[in-house]
Amino acid sequence: MTWQLAKEVNALFWTRSPSSQQFSKPNLTFYKNENIYKVMSKVKNAPALIYYQVANKIGNKEMKIQAKRLKKIIDRAESINDTFKPFVINEWIFDSSNSNVLIKFLNDFDKQHFNIDIEKLNWRQYLERVQLGNSKIYLERLNKRIK
């Protein structure tokens, strides 16, 4: 499996299954450096945060309401980013050496009924199912926590 495959599957999933509160196209960027990740998060949110500050200082009532909504959206996005941060700033290496050793000890019957050959895993399907679980579990919990 490659990071490119993970990115493709994630982007396709969120495009086909958008959140009920989605307000923009999903943007999936993986960073190997946490400092770059933090800077890019701030850069992406800067225009909205500036609008929020300006609206609260000199804006009319409608601007302040709009700015408050925008700030809530940014807070949700940051919370989602924090939830998935371990997955986007780390490089995960899957080592199947132990399962490869185990396969050698299985008899033919067990090999047929207990397919544990990781090299035959359909990674695309696996990632699609992981995303479905993430959307149901993590994001539902997140929405309840933020409300």
Automatic annotation (TrEMBL):
GO terms for molecular function: alcohol-forming very long-chain fatty acyl-CoA reductase activity. It comes from the Eukaryota. Residues 47-137 form the Fatty acyl-CoA reductase C-terminal domain. Transmembrane segments: none annotated. Pfam families: Sterile. This is Fatty acyl-CoA reductase C-terminal domain-containing protein.
